[in-house]
Specification:
about 400 residues; Heat Shock Protein 90; about 10% strand; about 60% helix; alpha+beta
């Protein structure tokens, strides 16, 4: 059931008989189509009133009664301009006038139609019953307008009321259907926008997770070399120059990657924009060599026949796990030997293990700060990929980071 007409509903049903009930901001203004429809119904009711009055004059009915009848009918016609604001009130007044005035018939039809379209069933039933009774009372008060028996007038009153009721229900059902379809379309559009926003947020979170892994690795290398220069001020000029070059290159790469991620997070990426190159498991030896060049002792044992055969998504996750494991080893177990073991085959999954001795006492190297969220991100990465990740101290006294990732055939 439609209550007070909202601007959205009026836009949905232009030119309709939508009521204009007042609200806190005042009555709803009529649109151009509303004015057109209201004018058509007003002219219909007025023309019918004049026609009935002309018939009354020609039929020899008392001119005084006819003049009074016409005056009441014209007033009812003008009252139709208020039906959008007070549909039930106008219908009751017009029907009450119809107890005596035959020329108010057109106004009564329009008023009752408005109530049927826009009011609840209880109000429709009461106004309709009043109209049926009013038709019978009119036949009693104005017998000059009817030459048929009273029961015939009663039947005609019921039939006319039923026709108006049916017409209004059809119009009302159609409008509700259109409104429902429009509402569904708006909801579908809103849900689509929400899905797009969620996908964009998930993609940004993925990019941020990737950049955490990359920047943590780069900055830990930079901190390691800077710490070496600090603790070895008497190092040969060649080593100092080499360490300074590594620091410069690592800082340049870290800044470049930071600019990329900030640019992506600030602006919505274009749909056709290419993804930045992502590492695969085939890049693992280069990662190990980079760590060795930074002074770490790393032993790689890969039991995979061809690292390039590992699917890109699986290889990227494995690469990030090893990268974070090496970064954590530089932070918390400086100077220790790190073992990296990669094993698996298609159909059986890929296992990645990074193991280093548990640090004892205060590390002799520079302390590298960390947020402590790297392992949390790795756990989420492995879970989303359908695998699992474990980390912690082993009975033998080592720190072990282990992950299993599915490797489909």
């Amino acid at each position: 059931m439609v209550g007070a007409a909202t601007p959205e509903y009026r836009a949905l049903l232009p030119g309709s008989l939508v009521e204009s009930a007042p609200d806190a901001a005042g009555p709803v203004r009529r649109t151009a189509r509303d004015w057109f429809v209201d004018t058509v119904f007003f002219l219909f009711a007025l023309l019918l009133a004049v026609s009935l009055a002309a018939y009354s004059y020609e039929s020899g009915i008392d001119e005084g009664r006819t003049t009074l009848d016409l005056a009441m009918g014209v007033l009812c016609c003008f009252g139709l301009w208020l039906r959008r604001r007070w549909p039930v009130g106008v219908a009751v007044v017009v029907t009450a006038a119809g107890l005596y005035s035959a020329t108010s018939l057109g106004a009564a039809v329009v008023a009752f139609f408005t109530v049927v379209v826009h009011r609840r069933a209880a109000a429709v039933a009461l106004v309709g019953l009043f109209g049926v009774v009013g038709g019978v009372v009119f036949a009693v008060l104005r017998p000059e307008w009817s030459t048929s028996p009273l029961w015939t007038d009663m039947i005609w009153s019921v039939v006319v009321t039923a026709l108006i009721l049916g017409w209004g229900l059809v119009v009302r059902a159609r409008r509700q259907l259109v409104f429902s379809l429009r509402d569904r379309a708006h909801r579908a559009e809103a849900e689509q926008q929400l899905r797009v926003a969620q996908a964009r947020q998930a993609e940004r979170a993925r990019i941020a997770r990737e950049m955490h892994d990359v920047l943590a690795h780069r900055i830990s290398l930079l901190s390691l070399h800077a710490g070496a220069l600090e603790f070895r001020p008497d190092a040969p000029p060649e080593e100092v120059a080499r360490a300074a070059g590594v620091i410069r290159d690592s800082a340049h790469q870290a800044l470049q990657e930071l600019r990329e991620v900030i640019g992506v997070l600030r602006e919505d990426p274009a749909e056709d924009a290419p993804d930045r190159p992502q590492p695969t498991l085939a890049d693992l030896p280069a990662l190990i060599d980079e760590s060795r060049a930074a002074g770490m002792r790393v032993r790689l044992d890969h039991q995979v026949a061809d690292l390039a055969e590992v699917p890109a998504a699986v290889g990227r996750n494995a690469y990030r796990i090893v990268q974070e494991g090496l970064t954590n080893a530089r932070k918390h177990a400086y100077g220790s030997t790190v073992d990296v073991i990669v094993a698996g085959a298609a159909g059986g999954g890929l296992s990645v293990e990074v193991r280093n001795p548990w640090p004892v006492g205060v590390p002799v190297g520079p302390e590298i700060p960390g947020t402590g969220t790297g392992l949390v991100g790795l756990t989420e990465r492995a879970t989303l990929a359908g695998g699992r990740l474990e980390h912690g101290r082993t009975p033998s006294g080592d720190f072990r980071l282990w992950a299993w990732l599915p490797w489909p055939v």
